[in-house]
């Protein structure tokens, strides 16, 4: 019998958790996502500071009733080159 690889052994024991939204952005309603994608498209790191942009996103989003997470998550998303 051939010896199984470490990957084979690990995959035998992995159980998939319940699928769900993968990020704070994915949990927002579609209209919020569309607006935030426009905001991200307007972000220019040569002209804008991430922290200032984050604060503005958080204030405007929460005013609309959206849950906007912490600075680190949003600034990573803001820099994401999707």
What this model shows, in words?
This protein has helices at 6-13, 30-42, 50-63, 71-79. By secondary structure, it is mostly helical. The chain has a domain at 30-82. Helix 3 (50-63) crosses helix 4. The mean pLDDT is 89.
Descriptive tags:
82 residues, mainly alpha, 54% helix, elongated
What is the makeup of the main sheet? none
The secondary-structure element order is: HHHH
Rg from alpha-carbon coordinates:
19 Å
Distance linking N and C termini: 46 Å
Helix content: 40-55%
Tell me the structural class.
mainly alpha
Mean pLDDT, as a whole number?
A: 89
What percentage of the residues does DSSP assign to strands (E)? under 5%
Number of helices: 4
Describe the global form.
elongated
The number of distinct β-strands equals 0
Taking pLDDT < 50 over at least 5 consecutive residues as the criterion, the unreliable ranges are: none
What's the SSE blueprint?
Blueprint: H1 6-13, H2 30-42, H3 50-63, H4 71-79
Helix pairs in contact: 3-4
In short:
This protein is mostly helical and 82 residues long.
């Amino acid at each position: 019998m051939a010896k199984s690889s470490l990957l084979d052994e690990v995959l035998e024991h992995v159980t998939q958790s319940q699928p769900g939204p993968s990020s704070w952005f994915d949990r927002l309603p579609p209209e919020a996502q569309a607006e935030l994608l426009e905001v991200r498209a307007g972000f220019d790191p040569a002209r804008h500071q991430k922290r200032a942009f984050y604060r503005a996103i958080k204030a405007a989003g929460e005013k609309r009733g959206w849950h906007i997470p912490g600075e680190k998550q949003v600034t990573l998303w803001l820099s994401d080159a999707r």
